[in-house]
Amino acid sequence: MKSKFLKLVLPAIAIIMAVGLAFATEESNLMQPGYKATPDGPEPVETDCVAEGEIQCTSGIFLVYLDEDLSIPLYERNE
Hints:
Elements: H1 2-22, E1 32-38, E2 41-47, E3 58-59, E4 62-65
Antiparallel strand pairs: 1-2, 1-4, 3-4
């Protein structure tokens, strides 16, 4: 009786945990396009910076912005 119960319940628990953990990832960890301000003009860059914060995001030594006009700065993620 006990082994039949475990054979039925353990896979169900594993499936429930797998589905729950699949939705536990943070959407904010996704990379987003941005533009770094270089002397040659704006260059596209993939970044994980956010729209609000205190410390402006950089790519190497260049500041990173959301738009190609370099008018909306992106900020370092606070974690």
